[in-house]
Design brief:
The protein folds into 2 domains: about 1-65, SH3 type barrels (Roll), CATH 2.30.30; about 75-280, Alpha-Beta Complex (Fumarylacetoacetate hydrolase, domain 2). It has 7 helices and 20 strands. The chain has helices spanning about 40-45, 45-50, 85-90, 95, 105-110, 180, 230-240, and strands at about 1-5, 10-15, 20, 60, 65, 75-80, 115, 120, 125-130, 135-140, 140-145, 160-170, 170-175, 190-195, 210-215, 215-220, 250, 260, 265-270, 275-280. Strands 1, 2, 3, 4, 5, 6, 7, 8, 11, 12, 14 and 17 form a 12-stranded mixed beta sheet that branches. Strands 9-20-19-15-16 form a 5-stranded mixed beta sheet, with no helix packed on it. Strands 13-10-18 form a 3-stranded antiparallel beta sheet, with no helix packed on it.
């Protein structure tokens, strides 16, 4: 199942180059009064959504504005330096490491970091770059979405807690500050183009991923080169935080990161998920 949010917070099921509007399925979700639960209600009730049979006519994907398939994550967790070749390119480029030794150690020592949930957008909303006097870079990543509450989960059981996968863009302002500070401006986390449920991707550890900027290939790798794979990332994250339905884990980027500027067009692709086009503008 490929589930998307589009236009004015409508819900759709993607079928090839079109979608079927199932916004009426949102009426199946439970209602709450304040305080609201710590989760994304849609993701925590995916089984109810699966039971809904779409009867609406097909709508071309090209005619809609795609939003993030997750609206309300309690947190966005990101994995730094999780590809060896990316570590090597950072070590060799002062514009990337900024003389900060924390930028050149492996994920085993660096751990994970958090991004502001307010940085989350969908591909149709685009990237609005800030601090144009500094270098802003693209980073394509496999993103996973947690499907049920997880705490101290072992890697051997971790995939049972995944609702699905999407393409992630982790945009970063280069500098010496903490990663979460430089990677959390509005629109600096792009998720999309839809959520592919976990049953369609039984092995997230062997997926090709690539990115084009204005038609030029910048990154091309495979998730098999991750230092910590998806189950180990969930194990690590859940050993520090309780993970709730809708929480996002961005699994790190391979080598090939490079600058983007207003006017650029990014096309990011991950095997078994699809492709998303994202426009870059000035904030």
């Amino acid at each position: 199942m490929k589930l998307c949010r589009f236009d004015d917070n409508r819900l759709g099921v993607v079928e090839g180059e079109s979608l079927r509007d199932i916004t009426a399925a949102l009426d199946l979700l439970p209602s709450y009064r304040y305080p609201f639960p710590r989760c994304d209600l849609l993701i925590s009730n995916l089984d109810l959504i699966r039971s809904f049979t779409p009867e609406s006519p097909a709508i071309p994907l090209s005619s809609v504005k795609l939003l993030s398939p997750v609206a309300n994550p309690t947190k966005i967790i990101a994995a730094p330096v999780n590809y060896q070749k990316h570590i090597e390119e950072v070590k060799d480029d002062v514009q990337l490491h900024q003389n900060n030794p924390a930028h050149t150690i492996t994920i085993h020592r660096a751990g994970l970091f958090l991004k502001a949930s307010s940085s989350l957008v969908g591909p149709g909303e685009g990237i609005a770059l800030r601090h144009l006097d500094r270098r802003n870079d693209h980073e394509v990543e496999l993103a996973l979405v947690i499907g049920k509450t997880a705490n101290n989960v072992k890697a051997s059981e971790a995939l049972q807690y995944v609702a699905g996968y999407a393409i992630g863009l982790d945009i970063t302002i280069r500098g010496s500050e903490d990663r979460s500070f430089r990677k959390s401006p509005d629109s600096y986390t792009v998720l999309g183009p839809w959520l592919v449920t976990a049953d369609e991707i039984p092995d997230p550890g062997h997926l090709d991923l690539r990115i084009l900027v204005n038609g030029e290939e910048r990154q091309n790798s495979n998730t098999k080169y991750m230092i910590l794979d998806v189950p180990k990332l969930i194990e690590l994250a859940s050993s520090f935080y309780t993970l709730y339905p809708g929480d996002i884990i961005s699994t790190g980027t391979p080598e090939g990161v490079s600058p983007i500027v207003p006017g650029d067009t990014i096309v990011a692709t991950i095997e078994k998920i699809g492709s998303m086009e994202v426009k870059v503008r000035a904030a």
